[in-house]
Amino acid sequence: MVRLYNVTKVYPNGVKALVDVTLTVDPGEFVFVVGPSGAGKTTLIRLISREEFPTRGQIIFNGKNIGRFKSREVALFRRQVGMVFQDYRLLPGKTVFENVALAMEITGKPWREIKKRVPEVLSQVGLLSKIRCFPYQLSGGEQQRVSLARALVNRPSLLMADEPTGNLDAENARELIRLLLEINREGTTVLMATHALDIVNVLQKRVVTLREGCLAESETQGSYRYGT
Amino acid sequence: MELRMLWRWWREAFVSLFRNGWLAASATGMVLVSLFLLGFVTLLALNAAHFSRMVEREIEVSVFLSKEVTPDLVRKIRRELEGIEAVAQVTFVPKEKALEKLKKNLGEKSRLLTGLEDDNPLPDAFRVKPKQASEVSFIAEQAAALPGVEKVRYGEDVVEKLLKITDWLRIAAVALVVLFGLAAVFLTMTTIRFSILNREEEIGIMKLLGATNWFVRGPFILQGIIIGFSGAALAAGFLYWGYSSLVQRVQEAAFIFLQPVAGSGVLLMVFGSLLACGVLLGALASALSVHRFLTV
Q: Potential cystine with B110: which of A135, A169, A202, B103 (Cβ 3.0-4.6 Å)?
């Protein structure tokens, strides 16, 4: 699904965020990307979503080099990738319904389909009752689930989450992980960058550890042993 | 697909204008004020130009002939005068007519002139209208050189001063319009840009969700057009109301010489340009403001 070949990212200020990372994520996998702050987790995700370009190396998505995409191809590519962020990134001026509908409008889906699909995905994340609310009327956990609904509404083949539980309490974090696992079971590849070692260690999924920008370990049923 | 996008642009533009009502209203107000001032100055400039034209139309060259000219020579001088490139119109004023006019001007005192009919001391003359007021001195020179011409008059001192004033009026008018035009562009652009400033994050999110540039740009440009159009329409409305009541008052006062520009064609053009300015500025300002945020 996603392959990184010898990817290095050096920021203009000289910081080496990623150094020679080669990594393959297969379709249907659930992958944790772990490591201390500043290890390059966010950079990895920003490179795959093509918010940034690698300094060296290539990133291949379904056989295509995403670095070669033109503006329109980037747009089409991003529609296949769901994104969830630590700070939710909902549009404050739009209701829950509109926030989720936006992702479908962007793909040009007809209104009929949008009106049917949005409540569907909102009930999947347990927020159907909040459909007319604005983001500021929701708790953090609820906002994050709206953001997850938005990421799922187009049935993406890949879901990337950058510290999605970073601002959530334990209970909301568990609920979010439960939803991610459910989505993964339905066939979506999930790539999640996180700090939360308790979650990682319990789930026994594949773990990719980054340390100072380098790929330190990649284990299929791994745990988070940073510091040891 | 494309139609759906257009429809979405409109819906999005109106929803956003409605939800940011105060911002939209103040932006419209800014456009209104700046375009009102621009329109006001433009009307002022048009009137200045009109006034200058009216004044200059009065300027002419009087060519007095010597007493001995034969009718043949008069015809020849006429041909010569009409042959000058800068001349618009040549009128012959025989001495009898000149005397009559003088009598009329003197009124009561015209008795002084009785008995002069048989021995008229006034010369025959041509009144020559120039195509351009600034060409009078050239025409006067040419006319003075013709045989049979005794004297040429065009109110040298006054005309020179007058031309200086009308020239200055025209330049000042154009300068004012340019100045206020630039101010209107700057104010409109800044206001609309300001109303988009806090949308940067929103635009970034839409791009990450896979929105094309036009998907993002469209509603903003439409909002700019709506704001620009409403501001301009209000400005044009106020101007029309104010100006037409002013024109009416001046016409009632009947200063024949100082009639303002009131042709509906001219006014339509001024107000049409204001509307076009509003729409264009609104669209351009939005497009430019969004452009900076689209490179995600």
A: B103
Nearest CA-CA partner of A92 in A135, A137, A148: A135
Alpha-carbon gap, residue B212 to B296, rounded angstroms: 11
Q: Do B209 and A106 touch (CB under 8 A)?
A: yes
CA distance B226 to chain A (A): 20
> What are the chain B neighbours of A76 within 8 Å (beta carbons)?
210
Q: What is the pLDDT tens value at each position of chain B, 296 positions in all?
A: 578 788 888 988 888 888 888 888 988 998 999 999 999 998 888 888 888 888 788 888 888 888 777 888 888 888 888 888 888 888 888 877 787 877 777 777 777 777 776 777 788 888 888 888 878 888 888 888 888 888 888 877 778 888 888 888 889 889 988 998 898 888 888 887 777 777 888 889 999 999 999 898 999 899 999 999 999 999 999 999 998 888 888 777 766 666 777 777 888 888 999 999 999 988 998 888 888 888 76
Pairing of strands B87-93, B149-153: unpaired
Contacts of A106 in chain B (CB under 8 A): 206, 209-211, 215
Which chain B residues in 182-201 lie under 8 Å from chain A, judged by CB atoms? 201
| β-pairing verdict for A64-65 and A214-219 | unpaired
Q: How far is B205 from A129, CA to CA, in rounded Å? A: 25
Helix H or strand E segment including A191:
strand A189-193
Q: Does B291 touch chain A (CB under 8 A)?
A: no
With CB atoms and an 8 Å threshold, state whether B213 touches A71: yes
Token pair, residue B181, equals: 């035009």
Residue B207 has, within 13 A of its CA and on its CB side, a CA count of 21
Alpha-carbon distance values, A59 to A43, A142, A156, B112, B230 (Å): 13, 33, 18, 110, 49
Sheet containing B87-93: give its strands across: B87-93, B125-130, B61-65, B149-153
Among chain B residues, the shortest Cα distance to A108 is held by B1
B172 token code pair: 């000042």
Nearest to B205 among A80, A89, A108 (CB): A89
Nearest to B4 among A78, A83, A108 (CB): A108
Cα gap A109→A14, rounded to integer Å: 43
Q: How many CB atoms lie within 10 A of CB B209?
A: 25
Measure the CA–CA gap between B12 and B17, rounded to whole angstroms: 8
Task: Among B8, B205, B210, select the one facing A79 at the smallest CB separation.
Answer: B210
Residue A104 with chain B: CB contacts under 8 Å: none
